[in-house]
Design a protein that fits this description.
The complex is a heterodimer of chains A (712) and B (528). The longest helix of chain A is centred in the first third of the chain and has 48 residues. In chain A, a hairpin with a 5-residue loop joins β12 and β13. Chain A has three domains: 298 residues, no CATH class; 214 residues, no CATH class; 113 residues, Jelly Rolls, CATH 2.60.120. In chain A, 43% of the residues lie in helices and 19% in strands. In chain A, strands 3, 4, 6, 9, 11, 12 and 13 form a seven-stranded antiparallel beta sheet that branches. Chain A has a five-stranded antiparallel beta sheet with strand order 2-17-23-20-21, with no helix packed on it. Chain A is globular. With 528 residues, chain B is mainly alpha-helical. Among the domains of chain B are: 241 residues, no CATH class; 114 residues, no CATH class. Helix content of chain B is 66%, strand content 1%. In chain B, a hairpin with a 2-residue loop joins β1 and β2. The longest helix of chain B is centred in the first third of the chain and has 43 residues. In chain B, 41% of the residues are buried. The chains are: A alpha+beta (712), B mainly alpha (528).
């Protein structure tokens, strides 16, 4: 039953992914290789070129290119009216406007030309002059596509030259503004490093970035094999489990047997300190005060009372509490009926011998056991709850234990590591997710949790000036407390960044930066700290109660600067591929529709997928019920009818949209406006969409044309 | 004989005729379109002229909304009727971006909304508020918060240029100054106020007035100073742009079109212009626009517009006094932080040596201006309350007037006390005697204010509190010579019953009251 279920999911995924390709392949094989084999063998490039030249000349004669100056004027006017926050933003917006105008222009021209050409030629019988010649319908279709693609290319070249010239002019203007700003701001101004980066590298550069391998949130820097979490800072660790069939059976057996138990064993190092005023308040709020134990003279001393005092001093240590949840492979709760947000609290027990690990035992409920034995893999998520407590995580902090006798039992450990199958997978130390990434809470003394971006095999060549730029996109999840005494221009949004070379131990030292909402900042770090490509970037929030939102790629290293012209060319190439797709769809529609309807149909095909994406969660299953509720339809029959109708329509829309081209796969300006190199994979992706939709539509156009009576 | 009809001699003739006909029709249409555009433009010009004439006071009709250098009329034509959908798109996306904290394009979109909807005050009011209140709080650092608030003010100024003298925009600009830059309840307020003051000064004068900030300072909001090298308002801010209207003007005051018209009479600002002063200027312009020009507020009641100059002027007086105490501390080498109630400076002796004469002069200037502003604010309150429609508001503003009275005495006393440190002989004695008298008056006024407005009813119903005294307090007629004793008794009873309803309000007076008492004691001993 289960394998079938899993298989059906896997198959559904594959089906959705490859169905358009399959359909495209069938159409091409049937239409071109079987039905049109004769015409395929007669294909002449000279005739195709001649037809395309006619289309091209016709479009030029119609003064199509005269629209480009209008687009250029539009770009200049709109750019003048923009309100960028900083010089880099000005260039980004100008790039965006230029490419948007180019895209809009070329798409509109392509749609109009492609949709109107054939119907008009048939109407005014110009087509007679072509079809009466020894040309095949395949050559006509291909020739027209090529002709309009040439027109698109011409427009793109003109707009590309303008874009480069205009951006270069803007760049000069903005650069002089940067130099003026650099001269006016204090030497320790937080904005200086970013401005210096722009002054050194210019605005029209293309950065090649190397992203970190992973991001983990620690309580402090790792101490040997122990990695630490701070309590009450939203930190947790994840341990993956992949059970064998035998282990699943064993768990199922425990679930089915009355009186039998299985345990989740947690083993952690614990260090505690005297709670300060804030921590004392948190202990009270979390309800840990009643169970607190008295602090002895040595804070982390060997002897702590085993029986709890009846009255608690204010500086009493809290018990070391963790909260445990089970998550499925999509990181959703597996706890079933239990409270999903809170998890189950477990109080860790002190070891008999000082210096040993603390341990906790959770009796796994039968409901959990059932679920664990049904899923291919799951995670055990362990939250660090107690304030004033550091939790040390070692290699195998979680284990499932099924007792079989008084002194014996079955131990089930974590899944094996993907990198090193001989070892168990290392626990991942993370923190709760906010709206803008993983939360990193701040403390005024900088001793709050740290985010550790681990870079591996970053290919950084030795720079001439001895420094390497880091790009930071740190979000502010929540503003911190204001220190009225120290408030100033540099403000309170302080973040400390430190780069540590894992091979040599070289450190950049702590560098303070002041991130701001929606802003990218740059930081130069010594080459020695990143030499070899295996290094960690440590980020910490240094402002009390300031929460940072960190995404996996919030820190990246600029490994090289590439040519802007090449990047612009790549972007325009993507745009050209998009325009060819537009042309093909336009020609396809015009083979069986009148031109006004063909234009509308082309727009629907082009924008259908995007439109469905925009509807987003409104099309999720079950949305029909909320529609019925919103319309206050309380009659059960009517409500069900409306709900089912809506859900069916939503399903149909989703299915249909899967057959329509996804324009988001043509990232014309996404990379270049952020100053990033357009990756080859992106070009191939665009080419893939063009091939998947363009080729079959060309073949269909040919088939329709061949069966169409266009001349007596 | 059969004759055949000759075939058409020239088969191209009908075609030529047709093409000529088409060409002439096309030319006609083009001409008609051009004439339509010209006629529409002329009609619009006539309408705008009519509007200008009919609202001679406001000056709004004389302006033209422009998109960059392009007339909005031309823009409407260019967009071919798509202005509405474009604006809707911009509103939706800008609000979504704000919600998602994605501010990259937000400013540009807000600017486009402003340019595309130049005629709608409600749009501008919203966007000014949106920037100053919603967007500024998203920023992490105070400097960027300040820049965003100043951006809201720049927005208001742009609209003011397009629609000069518009009550709603003027009032909104005043509200941003008062509610954000001068809002002392915000933790960032000290930074905002100091930064704004510094930006209004020239570099040389800033270094004199704020020597400790010279290294850190960076111009963030105002691109250029508002004051000249003599610390006077730059001429172009106070040059009238409109002639005085003929005939009797309602309210007796009129807006002359200059930007900082109502600061002109204070003219000299050696320590920079505080945001409270700017708030007063724009609130006053809005009030005069309402009173004398008959403009009507869009979202607020006329009563609020009419009362705001008085309130903002009072806040300005308070701010000058607060700053004066900072300078006073600096003048004598004491801590400049005013948060400790200026305990140290309260204990100064009249013959204490001055450590920083420049700071002393700044303090003297600030106290003098504070006293002057308090008197002017009182005048503004009386003007507001003299309107029969708002006369019943006296209950609300009585405590404000009482505060102004005590502030005025206190500022005069502080000024004379400091001035005496530089004087000698009989002049010194005269100044100190005057200071003593004013401290005593200020003390009585503050105690009276606490008794009348911030003392729990339970105190007056206590059998130990003389009933006649309680009645006179209730009627606000308590004689000066009985205030001190009544106040002392009230404090005992407050302590006895552990009353706390007005504690927060009382605390605000305690620092000044203690200062008064300390100074009185010092002066009495010194004069003896």
């Amino acid at each position: 039953m289960l394998p079938a279920f899993v298989l059906s999911f896997a198959f559904a995924d594959l089906w959705h992914q490859y169905l358009p390709w399959l359909a495209a392949g069938i159409i091409v094989v049937l239409g071109l290789l079987i039905y049109g084999a004769h015409d395929l063998f007669r294909l002449s490039l000279t005739r195709i070129w001649a037809i395309s030249s006619v289309c091209f000349s016709e479009a030029i004669r119609k003064r199509t290119l005269w629209i480009t100056p209008l687009a250029i004027i539009g770009v200049i006017v709109v750019t003048q009216l923009s309100h960028p926050d900083d010089p880099q933003e000005a260039i980004r917006q100008a790039t965006k406007f230029c490419l948007f105008a180019s895209g809009l222009l070329v798409s509109v021209v392509a749609i109009i030309l492609a949709c109107t050409n054939l119907p008009k030629e048939i109407d005014n019988r110009v087509i007679f002059t072509v079809v009466t010649k020894p040309t095949t319908r395949l050559e006509i279709v291909l020739g027209k596509c090529l002709g309009f693609a040439r027109i698109s290319a011409t427009i793109i070249i003109i707009m590309g030259i303008f874009t480069y010239a205009y951006l270069q002019t803007r760049s000069w203007t903005e650069m002089s503004a940067v130099h003026r700003q650099l001269a006016s701001i204090p030497s320790d101004s937080p904005t200086r490093p970013t401005l210096v980066y722009y002054a050194d590298h210019g605005f029209l550069t293309t950065r090649r970035l190397d992203a970190p391998e992973n991001l983990q949130i620690y309580g402090r820097l790792p101490d040997g094999n122990v990695r630490w979490m701070q309590g009450a800072q939203s930190e947790y660790f994840l341990v993956p489990f992949t059970l064998s069939e035998e282990q699943k059976d064993q768990l199922q057996q425990v679930a089915d047997t009355t009186g039998a138990s299985a345990y989740l064993m947690t083993t952690l190092r614990i260090q505690q300190h005297t709670p300060n005023a804030t921590e004392q308040r948190e202990i009270k709020e979390l309800g840990l005060g009643n169970a607190a134990v008295e602090l002895k003279a040595e804070e982390l001393g060997p002897v702590l009372p085993t029986s709890r005092p009846t009255t608690q001093p204010a500086n009493a240590l809290p018990p070391a509490v963790v909260s445990i949840r089970l998550l499925n492979q999509n990181y959703r709760s597996l706890n079933g009926t239990l409270d999903e947000s809170a998890g189950v609290r477990v109080v860790l027990q002190q070891p008999d011998k000082p210096g040993d690990s603390w341990y906790g035992r959770l009796t796994i409920p039968a409901e959990w056991l059932n679920r664990m034995s049904q899923v291919p893999m799951f995670y055990v998520q362990v939250h660090a709850i107690s304030p004033a407590t550091d939790y040390g995580v070692e290699a195998e902090p979680e284990m499932i234990f099924i007792p079989t006798g008084k002194q014996s039992g079955i131990k089930i450990g974590p899944a094996m590591s993907a990198q090193d199958p001989g070892k168990p997978a290392e626990p991942e130390l993370l923190s709760s997710r906010g709206a803008r990434g993983m939360i990193l809470m701040g403390k005024a003394d900088g001793k709050g949790p740290i985010a550790l971006y681990h870079f591996r095999n970053a290919k950084i060549s030795r720079p001439s000036n001895g420094t390497v730029p880091l790009q930071l996109q740190i979000n502010i999840e929540k503003n911190g407390e204001v220190d009225v005494e120290k408030i100033g221009e540099s403000g309170y949004a302080k973040v400390g960044v430190q780069v540590i070379n894992n091979k040599t131990g070289e450190s950049s030292g702590l560098i303070e930066v002041t991130p701001e909402l929606s802003q990218t900042s740059f930081l130069n770090v010594p080459f020695k700290s990143v030499e070899g490509g295996d290094f960690d970037v440590v980020v910490r929030s240094q402002t009390q109660d300031q929460w940072l939102g960190l995404k996996d790629d919030a820190v990246s290293v600029v490994v090289a600067d590439e040519s802007f012209v090449v990047n612009l060319f790549k972007s325009l190439l993507v745009l050209w591929m998009l325009s060819i797709l537009v042309v093909v769809i336009g020609i396809f529609c015009s083979t069986f529709l009148s031109w006004p309807i063909a234009i509308i149909c082309t727009l629907v095909i082009l924008l259908g997928h995007w439109g469905v994406d925009q509807l987003g969660s409104a099309l999720d299953p079950g949305s029909g019920r909320s529609i019925a509720t919103e319309f206050r339809i309380y009659d059960p029959v009517s409500s069900r009818t409306i709900s089912q109708t809506f859900d069916t329509l939503s399903h149909v829309l989703r299915v249909v949209s899967n057959f329509l081209p996804d324009l988001s796969k043509f990232p014309v300006s996404d990379y270049i406006e952020r100053g990033l190199a357009v990756p080859l994979s992106s070009l191939l992706q665009s080419l893939g969409v063009l091939a998947c939709y363009g080729l079959p539509l060309l073949v269909l156009s040919y088939v329709i044309m061949r069966n169409k009576e266009v001349a007596p | 004989m059969t004759t055949l009809k000759s075939p058409p001699s020239n088969s191209t003739k009908p075609a030529q005729g047709f093409s000529q006909q088409r060409a002439s029709t096309r030319t006609g249409i083009i001409l008609l379109m051009i004439i339509s555009v010209v006629v529409a433009g002329v009609l619009r010009g006539v309408a705008m002229d009519y509007q200008t004439k009919s609202s001679e006071f406001s000056g709004g009709g004389g302006s033209r909304s422009t998109l960059g250098n392009m007339d909005s009329y031309a823009l409407a034509l260019l967009l071919g009727g798509l202005r509405g959908p474009l604006v809707m798109f911009l509103w939706t996306t800008s609000e979504n971006e704000k919600g998602n904290h994605d501010l990259k394009d937000l400013d540009t979109k807000i600017e486009w909304i402003r340019l595309l909807q130049p005629e709608f005050d409600s749009v501008h009011i919203f966007q000014i508020w949106n920037k100053a209140y919603n967007i500024s709080v998203l920023m992490a650092s105070p400097a960027n918060k300040y820049i965003t608030i100043m951006d809201a003010i720049k927005y208001a100024q742009k609209v003011d240029q397009e629609k000069p003298g518009d009550l709603n925009i003027l009032n909104q600009e005043g509200s941003v100054y008062r509610g954000k830059l001068a809002a002392t309840n915000l933790p960032e307020a000290p930074f905002y106020i100091r930064q704004f003051r510094e930006e209004t000064l020239t570099d040389a004068n800033r270094k004199l007035a704020f020597p400790n900030d010279a290294r850190e300072f960076h111009r963030l909001g105002l691109p250029a100073p508002l004051l000249d090298e003599n610390n006077d308002l730059l001429a172009h801010f106070i040059t009238p742009r409109r002639a005085k209207p003929a005939g009797q003007i309602p309210g007796g005051q009129w807006n002359d079109g200059s930007d900082l018209q109502y600061l002109a009479k204070y003219k000299h600002f050696p320590t920079g212009i505080p945001p409270q002063a700017m708030a007063y200027n724009y609130n006053k312009r809005a009030q005069v626009a309402q009173t004398s020009e008959g403009q009507e507020p869009l979202q607020l009641s006329p009563m609020v517009i009419d009362s705001e100059p008085a309130v903002s002027l009072k806040e300005w007086a308070d701010e000058q006094s607060r700053e004066a105490r900072d300078y006073e501390g600096r003048a004598f080498g004491l801590a400049t932080d005013s948060s400790d109630g200026n305990k140290a400076s309260a204990m100064l002796k009249p013959d204490q040596s001055v450590a920083d004469t420049r700071a002393l002069n700044f303090a003297l200037y600030d106290y003098e201006l504070s006293a002057r502003l308090a008197a002017d604010a009182e005048g503004e309150y009386h003007r507001h309350l003299s309107n029969p429609q708002y006369a019943n508001r006296i209950n609300v503003y009585q405590s404000h007037l009482a505060d102004l009275n005590s502030l005025s005495h206190m500022a005069v006393a502080d000024h004379d006390f400091l001035a005496a440190s530089q004087a000698t002989g009989s002049q010194k004695k005269e100044l100190l005697t005057n200071a003593l008298t004013n401290y005593q008056k200020a003390q009585i006024e503050m105690e009276r204010t606490i008794l009348e407005f911030y003392t729990e009813l339970q105190v007056f119903t206590d059998p130990s509190f003389p009933p006649q005294l309680a009645d006179s307090i209730r009627l606000r007629q308590i004689p000066d010579d009985q205030v001190d004793a009544a106040f002392a008794r009230s404090l005992l009873l407050i302590d006895k019953y552990k009353l706390s309803e007005y504690n927060d309000d009382r605390v605000q007076y305690i620092g000044s009251l203690n200062r008064c008492r300390a100074r009185i004691k010092t002066l009495q001993e010194f004069i003896k």
